[in-house]
Design brief:
mainly alpha, 34% helix, 41 residues, Membrane-bound Lytic Murein Transglycosylase D, Chain A
Length: 41
């Protein structure tokens, strides 16, 4: 979704940002792209 950040995604799915970072080690959270797939723990 346009404008999404790891923080917003974490809130939406009741996760911590650290959980998202751990589940997505190759993803740069400062450079998310529309359509990019990330893993949810």
């Amino acid at each position: 979704m346009a404008g999404d950040t790891f923080f917003n995604i974490a809130l939406r799915f009741n996760l911590s940002v650290n959980q998202l970072l751990a589940a997505n080690p190759g993803v740069d959270p400062e450079n998310l792209q529309i359509g990019q797939v990330i893993c949810l723990p």
